[in-house]
């Protein structure tokens, strides 16, 4: 096939639910029949009951919950079932090494072929042959026992497998291919980003030598003359955006810069580089009141490279107001942290280690990624609201935020022009801490030059960009 085909199944299809019914029936039948037959050793309970039942139910869950975008992940329970069939005792094989070798080869071939098909590398109709073959083999062994005293025993022995493969065979007719022309996830991608597979060899191996985010931090600072920005802010306030301020301008300019230089929206996780595409996740700390005793929390706002300054204003203010409206400035993140704080310290340390491990392999649930202030595109903080200059804020080793920006309070500077005239100008200082691994220094420099040009003419932020460049085609 010239191009990878992305497969999916819909929960609206009755065949999907028939598959689920058959596989759940297979799991129940396996527990009942194996329990009646009896198992002598505890290790056999895990290999003959727990393993196949867990694999069967996992297949059902992945199909029903993630079948729309991640049907390819059903290959995981298929490999688990392959392991079960490999270690399951079979009287018909005896001790013939040739038969055993052929049997194990067929299991490996089945799992590899299923993985290749569900990844879109082979034609989907091959799944019909794939599931029909074991059904035919089971039918052959059952036919041999017909008319003998073992007829019922053989049928019951194969009943869980019959239900399993019938259910999977029915599912084949519910499988469809995405025809929207968009990219859909595959192996190696995360729920919050698409793996960048076109990096130069040196860029790919760098992450294994420099794995800590703070070790790979670059520090950048700049100052912007803001007379024209102040004028722009006053204009937007007259237009009805009463809370419009410097934060909205700086953030809108950053978003517009990503439209032209999309590599700024990449991140590193598990020693791999990923792109968030058009999803710019902005994180920010919010205080209810500007006092030392006032509680604070973190918010996350999803922005788009096509957003105008007004779009940024409405999205950011809506997120801020939603948490400020609560009595204790509680967000969903605060609720989660309250539950974590109930865990004893030593056990909590293990839980955090487990979360880091899951994050490394891209297995953190999507709702946790959404709550986490450590996962995003950009963390931007206003030191100006505190009345101090900007700081270099470290990047977080947990999570994947590659950029932390801070801007300070406005300051005045007296300058001498070329004709000798003394003038007073207003400036704002900005400092960034950047993960050097998501792009090279030239790309960063080009981006910040463009960022400066945007801030010099903030009125261009009133209209969507003429073109949004894709990070990955």
Task: Describe the structure in your own words.
With 473 residues, this protein is an alpha+beta fold. It contains 14 helices and twelve strands. The strands form three sheets. Strands 4, 7, 8, 9, 10, 11 and 12 form a seven-stranded mixed β-sheet that branches. A three-stranded antiparallel β-sheet has the order 3-6-5, with no helix packed on it. Helix 1 packs antiparallel against helix 2, helix 3 packs antiparallel against helix 4 (97-118) and helix 9 (246-260) crosses helix 10 (309-324). The protein is elongated, with a radius of gyration of 29 Å. It starts with 6 loop residues before the first strand and ends in a 17-residue tail after the last helix. The mean pLDDT is 88.
Q: Can you summarize this structure?
A:
The chain has 473 residues and is α+β, with helices and mostly antiparallel strands. 48% of the residues lie in helices and 15% in strands.
What key phrases describe this protein's structure?
single chain, 473 residues, alpha+beta, seven-stranded mixed sheet, three-stranded antiparallel sheet, 12 strands
Sequence-ordered SSE layout with sheet pairings:
Layout: E1 7-8, H1 14-37, H2 42-66, H3 75-87, H4 97-118, H5 126-145, H6 151-172, E2 176-177, E3 194-195, H7 201-209, E4 217-225, H8 227-238, H9 246-260, E5 266-269, E6 272-275, E7 280-287, E8 296-303, H10 309-324, H11 332-340, H12 345-360, H13 366-371, E9 378-382, E10 403-407, E11 411-416, E12 422-435, H14 441-456
Parallel strand pairs: 7-9, 9-10
Antiparallel strand pairs: 1-2, 3-6, 4-12, 5-6, 7-8, 10-12, 11-12
Helix pairs in contact: 1-2, 1-6, 2-3, 3-4, 5-6, 9-10, 9-14
């Amino acid at each position: 096939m010239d191009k990878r085909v992305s497969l999916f199944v819909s929960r609206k299809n009755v065949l999907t639910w028939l598959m689920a019914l058959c596989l759940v029936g297979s799991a129940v039948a396996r527990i009942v029949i194996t329990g009646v037959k009896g198992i002598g050793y505890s290790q056999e309970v895990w290999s003959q009951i727990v393993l196949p039942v867990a694999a069967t139910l996992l297949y059902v869950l992945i199909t029903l919950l993630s079948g729309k975008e991640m049907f390819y992940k059903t290959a995981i329970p298929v490999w688990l079932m392959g392991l079960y069939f490999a270690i399951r005792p079979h009287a018909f094989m005896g001790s013939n090494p040739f038969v055993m070798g052929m049997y194990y080869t067929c299991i490996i071939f089945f799992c590899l072929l299923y993985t290749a098909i569900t990844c879109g590398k082979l034609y989907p109709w091959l799944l019909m042959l794939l599931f029909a073959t074991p059904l035919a083999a089971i039918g052959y062994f059952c036919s041999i026992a017909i008319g003998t005293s073992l007829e019922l025993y053989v049928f019951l022995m194969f009943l869980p497998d019959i239900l399993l493969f019938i259910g999977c065979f029915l599912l084949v007719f519910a499988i469809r291919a995405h025809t929207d022309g968009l990219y859909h996830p595959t192996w190696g991608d995360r729920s919050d980003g698409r793996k960048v597979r076109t990096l130069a060899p040196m860029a790919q191996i760098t992450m294994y030598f420099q794995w800590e985010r703070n070790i790979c931090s670059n520090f950048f600072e700049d100052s912007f003359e803001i007379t024209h920005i102040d004028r722009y802010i006053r204009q937007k306030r007259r237009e009805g955006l009463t809370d419009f301020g410097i934060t909205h301008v700086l953030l809108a300019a950053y978003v517009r810069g990503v439209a032209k230089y999309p590599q700024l929206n990449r991140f590193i996780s598990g020693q791999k580089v990923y792109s968030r595409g058009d999803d710019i996740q902005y994180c920010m700390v919010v205080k209810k009141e500007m006092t030392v005793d006032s509680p604070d929390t973190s918010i996350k706002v999803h922005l788009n490279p096509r957003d105008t300054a007004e779009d940024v204003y409405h999205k950011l203010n809506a997120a801020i107001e939603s948490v400020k409206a609560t009595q204790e400035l509680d967000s969903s993140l605060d609720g989660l942290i309250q539950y974590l704080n109930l865990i004893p310290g030593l056990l909590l340390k293990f839980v955090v280690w487990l979360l880091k491990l899951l994050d490394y392999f891209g297995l953190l649930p999507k709702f946790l990624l959404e709550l986490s202030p450590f996962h995003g595109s950009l963390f931007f903080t206003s030191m100006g609201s505190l009345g101090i200059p900007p700081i270099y804020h470290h990047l977080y080793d947990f999570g994947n935020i590659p950029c932390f920006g801070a801007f300070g309070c406005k300051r005045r500077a007296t300058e001498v022009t070329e004709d000798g005239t003394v003038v007073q100008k207003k400036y704002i200082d900005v400092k960034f801490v950047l993960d050097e691994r998501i792009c090279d220094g030239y790309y960063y420099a080009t981006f910040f030059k463009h960022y400066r040009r945007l801030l010099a003419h903030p009125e261009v932020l009133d209209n969507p960009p003429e073109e949004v460049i894709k990070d990955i085609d």
